[in-house]
Write a structure and sequence with these properties.
It contains 13 helices and 2 strands. It has 350 residues and is an all-alpha fold.
Length: 350
């Protein structure tokens, strides 16, 4: 093995260990301090580690914390002010989501767009269905982001090796404009948000966060097999999260929780660090496992029927979103001149 290959292997190992350490620490700290929701910092850490374009600096961390405060605060204030006129509220949310998806697809900074999409999808629904929890949600998002950033800065000191900067991803051929894909993404998410609002379902937060991440990771340049892999990854991740909770019940302490998470997150971290389509599936499955596991920890022992209902909601929402995205995109007529966009593939921190 030459020096370059050895360095790349070392960088991959360090990226894997950074991921496993940061996400484990974020969930363990959130759970030990009884934060609501305890999985939020871990999910944000996973998204950051998968999407950071390079090594995180202190200046970048401060900037990301400020961005999180803005993208969490503005939708919350908007939802509170327009709570009495939900049609106006969701009209504005729909427009904002459409513009944010379009900005993401034309190559604007990825992480702020992802964070804004999560907040736009989650906060208004929680404000209207669970006002008592909604008061805590913006602060929970900012607090989770702060913890994730601090842990990433610390992990970079312990495992500093970073891979060489990769060339930009090849442009993927779209049969329509990025705005058209943004329109489809918004149109697919909106029925899920309205369903949770109209039926007053209180499990909105885990399902909506997962569905947003699935839609963001949808790549029209990939085959139907990749879309099915994302759906399957989401389902397997949710089942894994529930199984982790059942295993934890045998030895319910923080040490065993940490060991259990590390054993699961090292393989996830390895797949995410390698990037590409496999990395996208690994990120979706990892987030699904974290969300279901964290939700189970917060809810405590509940009946199997209730958890089965939650898992079915979780799986159906993801399957509906990705299936509709793939079906509608394939049904669109191809224009005479195809446009391009860069594929947003997860990469490990440099």
């Amino acid at each position: 093995m030459n020096a370059s290959a050895a360095w790349e292997q070392r960088a991959l190992t360090h990226a894997t260990l950074r991921f496993a350490f940061v996400v484990t620490a974020a969930l363990v700290i959130g759970e030990s301090l009884r934060w609501w929701p305890s999985f939020l910092a871990a999910v944000l850490a996973a998204v950051l580690l998968a999407g950071l374009p390079g090594r995180l600096t202190l200046r970048m961390a401060v900037g990301m914390a400020i961005v999180m405060a803005v993208v969490a605060g503005v939708p919350y204030i908007l939802a509170i002010l327009l709570r009495g006129v939900p049609f106006v509220l969701f009209g504005l949310v729909t427009l904002a989501m459409l513009l944010t998806f379009n900005a993401l697809l034309i190559g604007r900074p990825k992480l702020p767009a992802i964070l804004l999409l999560i907040c736009l999808a989650v906060i208004p629904v929680v404000v209207l269905t669970a006002p008592a929890q909604a008061v805590l949600l913006p602060w929970a998002l900012v607090r989770g982001m702060g913890l994730a950033l601090v842990l990433i800065l610390l992990a970079q000191q312990i495992w500093p090796a970073a891979a060489a900067q990769r060339p930009a991803a090849a442009a993927a051929q779209l049969r329509g404009s990025p705005f058209l894909l943004a329109l489809l993404s918004t149109a697919v998410l909106l029925p899920i948000l309205l369903a949770y609002l109209l039926f007053g379902l209180l499990d909105a937060l885990p399902v909506i966060v997962t569905t947003v991440m699935l839609v963001i990771n949808f790549d029209p340049a990939q085959s139907a097999r990749h879309a099915r892999a994302l759906i399957l990854g989401n389902l397997i991740g949710g089942l894994l999260g529930w199984c982790l909770y059942l295993v934890l019940l045998t030895t319910p302490n923080l040490l065993f929780l940490s060991i259990l998470l590390l054993m699961v997150l090292i393989p996830f971290g390895h797949g995410i660090a390698k990037g590409g389509p496999i990395g996208a599936v690994a990120l979706v499955a990892c987030n699904a496992a974290l969300i279901i596991f964290g939700s189970a920890l917060s809810a405590g022992p509940v009946s199997s029927i209730l958890w089965l209902t939650r898992l079915v909601q979780f799986a159906l929402a993801g399957a509906f979103a990705l299936s509709m995205m793939h079906l509608l995109w394939r049904c669109l007529p191809a224009p005479e001149v195809a446009r391009t966009r860069s594929v947003p593939t997860p990469t490990h921190p440099r």
